[in-house]
């Protein structure tokens, strides 16, 4: 293979890899509503008992919303996400945060199709899954979602 052709192929691979990386980065942390098929979610917005079962036995779901954080012991962004969720819950009446450590519950990672941490599920007052966020969530997206749940 000629050196100029090899350089051209290498340059094209770098461009393709960069574009794919930018697309994936842009999608990271985006809120996907359960009832929005355009957002790539196929979940129906119906109550899912297994989502409420994720709460610890002594935990109660929120009267307005429950935020479930899936994390692992080795997740670098999970502690900051947990602090942000706790702050939101403290500022928003009726919102509860629950954390599930997937390090010890790999069965839940499979059953809930968790492919990255942090992942946050937003459950409505009846336990209905209304949104899912893969990656560190944007605070403004969560605030907007919680505002919609109160109306």
Automatic annotation (TrEMBL):
Q: Which residue spans traverse the membrane?
A: 6-24
* SUPFAM superfamilies attached to this UniProt entry: Thioredoxin-like (SSF52833)
| Gene3D superfamilies named among the record's database cross-references | Glutaredoxin
Which stretches make up the Thioredoxin domain? 32-151
Keywords of this entry: Membrane, Transmembrane, Transmembrane helix
Among InterPro entries, the record links this protein to: Thioredoxin-like_sf, Thioredoxin_domain
State what protein this is by name: Thioredoxin-like negative regulator of GroEL
């Amino acid at each position: 293979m000629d050196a100029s052709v090899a350089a051209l192929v290498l340059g094209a691979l770098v461009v393709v890899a960069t574009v794919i990386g930018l697309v994936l980065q842009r999608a990271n942390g985006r809120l996907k509503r359960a009832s929005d098929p355009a957002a790539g979610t196929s979940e129906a917005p119906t109550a899912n008992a297994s989502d409420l079962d994720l709460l610890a036995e002594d935990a109660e779901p929120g009267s307005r919303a429950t935020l479930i954080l899936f994390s692992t012991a080795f997740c670098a962004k999970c502690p900051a996400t947990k602090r942000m969720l706790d702050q939101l819950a403290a500022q928003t009446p009726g919102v509860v945060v629950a954390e599930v450590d997937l390090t010890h519950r790999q069965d839940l990672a499979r059953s809930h199709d968790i492919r990255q941490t942090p992942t946050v599920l937003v459950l409505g007052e009846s336990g209905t899954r209304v949104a899912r966020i893969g990656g560190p969530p944007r605070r403004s997206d969560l605030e907007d979602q919680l505002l919609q749940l109160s109306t």
